């Protein structure tokens, strides 16, 4: 189990960085180069990673994409959210994301996205993982819900430094547990604090309730 855990640490690091060499992975994860190399070779043999012969760095391969695609296609939460996200993007013409809370309630992962057609876009979060203590709107809203806030919890992010603004509302399953969040992101000049509070918040709460009801939620 220890060996398997180390191997998946290597895979997760590649998911977050895009590509990396053995030395970089070893130093970042505090693993021996031998452990890292053996994990990479195993994943390479199973088609999950591939090596760039010029840079000698490893990255995820197409089979890793197939794994992710298989998950998204068979997850009812993600499937049911697709028309909801599309409608919301059509209404606002801003990028809409779906974040899922992991079983341990430690991380969120962005699993679906409907991107704005406006020329100025925000950096995609699709496939990215954040701790539940991070400053993304989805993480902040889900953290509140995990800690006991009831109802359809909303939170926002507004950063003059990154010039990014957004809001998110949690989604609950049939048992009332928080399982994810619907999030809207935009450049800060297109989404003021006033607009977040007066327009985005009530709309996201309405949409989150709609999706939760589709999942069998009943208060």
Strand arrangement, major sheet? 6-5-4-9-8-7
- Describe the largest sheet: 6 strands, antiparallel
CATH overall fold name of the largest domain: Beta-Lactamase
Going by helix content, strand content and strand pairing, the class is: alpha+beta
Low-confidence stretches: none
Percent range for β-strand residues? 15-25%
Separation, N- and C-terminal Cα atoms = 41 Å
Radius of gyration: 19 Å
Task: Report the principal-axis shape.
Answer: globular
Name the CATH architecture of the largest domain: 2-Layer Sandwich
Number of helices: 7
Range of helix content: 40-55%
How would you describe this structure in keywords?
alpha+beta, Beta-Lactamase, 9 strands, 3-stranded antiparallel beta sheet, 219 residues, 7 helices, 2 domains, 6-stranded antiparallel beta sheet
């Amino acid at each position: 189990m220890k060996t398997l855990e180390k191997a998946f640490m290597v895979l997760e690091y590649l998911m977050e960085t895009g590509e990396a060499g053995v030395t970089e992975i070893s130093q970042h994860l505090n693993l021996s180069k031998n452990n890292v190399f053996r994990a990479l070779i195993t994943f390479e043999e199973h088609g999950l990673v591939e090596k760039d012969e010029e840079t000698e760095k490893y990255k995820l391969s197409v089979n890793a994409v197939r794994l992710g695609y298989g998950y998204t296609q068979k997850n009812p939460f993600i499937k049911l959210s697709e028309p909801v996200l599309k409608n919301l993007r059509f209404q606002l013409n801003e990028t809409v994301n779906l974040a899922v809370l992991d079983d341990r309630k430690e991380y969120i992962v962005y699993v679906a996205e409907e991107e704005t057609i406006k020329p100025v876009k925000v950096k995609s979060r699709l496939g990215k993982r954040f701790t539940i203590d991070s400053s993304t709107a989805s993480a902040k809203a889900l953290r509140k819900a995990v800690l006991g806030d009831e109802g359809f919890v909303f939170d926002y992010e507004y950063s003059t430094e990154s010039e990014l603004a957004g809001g998110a509302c949690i989604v609950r399953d049939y048992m009332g547990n928080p399982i994810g969040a619907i999030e809207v992101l935009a450049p800060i000049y297109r989404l003021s604090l006033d607009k977040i509070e007066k327009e985005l918040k009530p709309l996201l709460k309405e949409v989150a309730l709609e999706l939760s009801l589709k999942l069998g939620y009943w208060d």
